[in-house]
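ping. complex inputs:
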Amino acid sequence: MKRYSVFAIAREAMRHHTGWERAWRSPEPKKQYDVVIVGAGGHGLATAYYLGKNFGITNVAVIEKGWLGGGNTGRNTTIIRSNYLQDPSAAIYEKARSLYETLSQDLNYNVMFSPRGLLMLAQTHHEVRGYLRTVHANALQGVATEWIEPARVKELVPIINIDGPRYPVLGALYQARGGTARHDAVAWGYARACSAMGMDIIQQCEVKGVRSEGGAVTGVDTTKGFIGTKKLGIVVAGHSGQVADMAGFRLPVEAVALQALVSEPIKPCMDVVVMANTVHGYMSQSDKGEMVIGGGTDGFNNFTQRGSFHHIEETLRALIETFPMISRLKMLRQWGGIVDMTGDRSPIISKTPLGNCFINCGWGTGGFKAIPGSGWAMAELMAKGEPGALAKDFSMWRFKEGQFIDESVAAGVAH
Amino acid sequence: MSTRLAKGGRLIDRTATQEFSFNGKRLKGFKGDTLAAALLANDQMLVGRSFKYHRPRGIVAAGPEEPNALVNLGRGGRFEPNQRVTTTELFEGLEAKSQNHWPSLEFDVGVVNNYVARFLPAGFYYKTFIHPRPFWKHVFEPIIRQSAGLGAAPKDRDADRYEQAYAFCDLLVVGGGIAGLQAALVAGRAGARVILLEQTAHFGGRAVVDGEVIDGKPADAFVTAALAELGGMANVTVKARTMGAGVYDHGYVLADEKVADHTPGDGRPKHRLWRIRAGKILTATGAIERPLSFAGNDIPGVMLAASVRDYVVNFAVSPADRTVVVTNNDDAYRTAIALKEAGLAVPAIIDARSNVTGELPARARSLGIRIEAGRGVAKVLGGKRVTGVSICLQAGEGAVIDEIACDAVAMSGGWSPVVHLWSHCGGKLNWDTTNAHFRPDAARPPLNHDGGAMVYAAGIANGAMTTAAVLADADAQAQAAVTALGMAPKPAELPYAAPVVEGAMEAVWIMPQGATAPLKSKMWLDYQNDVKVSDVQLAAREGYESVEHTKRYTTLGMATDQGKLSNINGLAVLAGALNEDIPQVGTTTFRPPYTPVTLGALAGEARGEIFQPLRRTPMHAWHEKNGAYMEPVGLWRRPYTFPRTGETHEQAVHREVLNTREKLGLLDASTLGKIIVKGPDAGRFLDMLYTGVMSTLPIGKCRYGLMCNEQGFLSDDGVVARIDEETWLCHTTSGGADRIHAWMEDWLQCEWWDWKVYTANVTEQYAQVAVVGPNARKLLEKLGGMDVSKEALPFMQWADGTLGGFPVRVYRISFSGELSYEIAVPASHGAAFWEACHKAGAEFGAMPYGTEALHIMRAEKGFIMIGDETDGTVIPQDLNLDWAISKKKDDFLGKRGQQRNHLASPDRWKLVGFEALDGSVIPDGAYVVDSGVNGNGQRNVQGRITSTYFSPTLKKGIAMGLLKHGPKRMGEVVEFGTFKNGVQGTLKARVVDPVFFDKDGEKQNV
Amino acid sequence: MLVLECPYCGVKAEETELSPGYEAHLKRFGPGSSDEEFESYMFARKNPKGVHFERWRHVYGCGKWFLAARCTATLEVFGTYPAQSSEPPADLVAKIKAKRPDWKGYK
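pong. complex structure:
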């Protein structure tokens, strides 16, 4: 792999950029691999990357029915934070956040991680108490967050209306090293690094069946033929239920549509990410200048990647109330993704009833921020066959025990 | 130069001059102009700068596809960035400023990017700015951000208002060209309810500009007659200036009506957002002309051919004295002819096709226009304005044959049907090789709720390329839609248009075909985002092969026009680079809206006070008048406290607590949920709902109850009163009333549907006043009426009667530990009763108190609060509420859930009280630390605070919380982790009984 | 933006009048059931990409719960019926089978 740098760009500029090599190879599948990952989204690719990097396992194929990074990795609002309440969540999201800090250097690919700061507004006294609890929990979890007063909120976000007649801002939970990253680049950077380690990323290859023998997986049938493997990782977000069906087990997961939208680009006016959970809206400004806005989820199973429009209206009402100056901006594009929601809205990183078959799913509305940590934990689980500290609480059997990881405790929504 | 012609102009009124300004220059236009037309009439071709290289940008188009000509419009509360000049109607006093440059439009420092463009290819930022690490956040990103964006950020609150409206129809026709009009006529005559939308202020589309002849008359006559006929039909609504923005499932269409954009400040709403529910949708949305990719095709003065004739014909604006036409099809010859007929020079038509035979070229030849067949543009000459073109063989590599001086280039690469609305809900497309475009595949339409076709495409939007074909197709599609709606189209003669013999177009994606790398790096695909042919080819070379990868890697089609001009050209270039067919490469996903919609319109009138519905108790006005500081509780607003002059909120709350404990406090408890449960099976039902037994509750008595969800977690609590043999009244928390009522209905309708029970949520039917404190009885006795003595109305009983002449139901219940009556009156009496209590209570020291005093008093008594002691993970057993859980019942909601391992564990955290050793208030949300760390290096914890207050009664901090094995650890000293102002610390506290005040309950039992 | 016809009041109700309730025909497991049964009742929801039976409440209308058969991939609605049904009505099942020959059927 030729390294990317400003010198490489200068060199290539002299020959009209004809010398750049492919970011990742596009091979035909081999007959047999040590590990097959289904799903070349951020989580699947990160799993493969850390299998190679942390465990030296590189005889790996990542197979993808569409194009890599084309699911929720490429259609989220790119927020990165780790200010979670419950220990297992805080651990994995903080692991992810800290890996994001150096990901561009690790991958030699600029993923534009921008720890510009993230605010969660408290707009009721109940919310104030909830966030104070989070601040205390985070301090003991090693997650740097703080409680800030309204005047400081206004200083950080000059365009905010802190004296709204209905829900004045009473303060905020602030994570100074939360922020955003360029979502596509995360998938592309991992893909390039995996390919450079000799792993095969096979796009346009849909899994049609999972084969097993004696209770353990032996391979997958795909649109490009049978691919044998010693271990199988299922990392397919919204379609987890379908692939789990093929592997012969049912997941406590339902697929619903989550929406987002962007405005036309304007000159920079907001440097931090703001989430307002009482009124259900969150917003950041991309490096291109678009206001990136997250919407709500529908309450019904949906695989169309389209949500119901009234959620967009509700979100915008909340945001115009919070940021009155956006009223005359225009919605450029709205879209939806399919998110997989578990019974406690926390993810699953787990062994499954099928031997040597592992699952990573259920990230719901909050998966992007977890990608490096999720891949790290999943790689450890797949390499060792047993979950490490990061993954152990995210077992798919926790529901039977009633041992939930419930984040809705702290905030109405978990984005 | 561009200028106003002496005569002509379909849409302008030369008698009405309108003054406007551009970058501070005072300019004049005519009523009926678009801002684009008026700018061109004033020779203002240069209107902006591109996103990345800050290259000069001129007006390219005449409609919503315009990628370049975006301005900052207006000022103050009516300032609007990124306003498209081609769709902005001119009005008197309009102020526009160009965007994305510094210090000025003519001299932009950012253009330095242009000179280093070869170092900034697609995706360059992914490959650089990687080291050193802190530089991205502190150096590189701030620079990139400063150069980002287009228009300026608005500063002020929006001065305008917006409306939202609903409409319903059988057939929604989107597009008011001849196809849309014909379709509306067919459906209207058949009796269907029709809505016809046109995004501009004018009907007729291209046909009226191009001088088409229908039924022997100019197309204008057809349009006028059609509008007249439609106007006479009661079942047809015709709306101009209304853009069909998005098609959503089950026939839901969003349309944006620009009501007052052209008359700002006249008192009307700026926009009206229509939410239309249509039986079927017919898209007659026309087509968009494609640019051609030749070197320098972004220099101001290079325009779309049909747009050039729009300016000439509609506005009598000549974009240039000498215009060279570049084309791969016959349609662009209409532009040459229109220019010539307007007296302007057309030095040449450069036609990439070697064989040029149609009727239109013949007419052009007869007008003396030079036609260069088989040729292409090697390069456009000029910087901020076109000065000429050099021509070459289309089949070659770009060797210059000739140079032609001109000041505009009119280009046409063919037409792409507008398929956006067809595609929003998954309608599929076919590649049409003849016309080199994607058009709707009628066999794979977007589906409606019944599985049938939801959308029909008609006219040129469906790939019908001539007037005759457009009318025939519109007629046929409308008939099909009407028939599918179960109605019968009326027989009528199809309007006649003479067939025109046009030569076949020839797909041309790069000009010349064998262009060298330096030329390709000057061929713009996306003008706004500066994406060139070379960028797309680079993306393909680097493996970004999916059309979505290419789009995202190069930002092709991600500008404010969402690729209306660039997408097809871009994916054709991509297909070429990949050696694949265009349909194999496919398109990116079409998403709403068709053109950007103002956020204010999407939010509608819900702002400020009416941002959400507001629920008011009957005493709400009194609270406001008496200076209450309110807090939101669901959609209610409740007084948090009633501060007096000079008091802080904290002082006010403490006063309220002490006054209530010592004298008399009055609380507006009207928001408390009240649900009547009635019927022969009501007792049995409540026994399933509550953890305790409610069926045995004697008439006239009250009982505290807990409700859990099926998981076993505590969900709500409240006092239940047995009204009569078959009737119970269940109190819920203020926030829980609607949720619990829905919960009851869910179980009654879906699980125990044979049980005979009715429920009614009567929360708003009653006002409720808590009369609390040692003087409570005195107040009621003074009001006079029913017997409220200890004997007549003991604790946990209720009675009906009158007080002070008001019909009341009095509950003897207490959430403060004081002698307390909660008095319900019909809501209409609420305000009067409340005032009567204050009046009569004055001599007993009555004061209102708010929610915070309520919270403190209940905490002093160790009473739990849903939402404080519970958070969705807490079971009643955790709160030592086992006494309220029946051991005898076989089943209740939550019982099975509570039997699971984790919930039945003896190691759960349980409710205790905490007192800081130093008497301070333990910080809200603090955790009790344990020794060591867990596997993830997080500090182990063993408990946490759930409620913490300064008790004015006890003059010290008190707290409730959960602690592992808590009740067994009374007297033990534990350590809290504290965190204040960024400093971590610890605080020692003693584990105590959570009942801090009046442990034996003597105060309430008097 | 779905439209579902309420089988009680006959109103073609828009989604904003309705409140969703996920999978229909769940069998409740209470005390005495095994951990597996209870887990399956609480969490193991059907999540098909295709024909799905689900609960809706006409909350801003007549207030009644009803059930709907809907395709989660196309949002086609095959029919609605009262909540007081222990399984989908036979005529509805037949209608779905006719429209979707590949459908494996309810259960």
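The CA atoms of residues 2 and 15 of chain C lie 5 Å apart.
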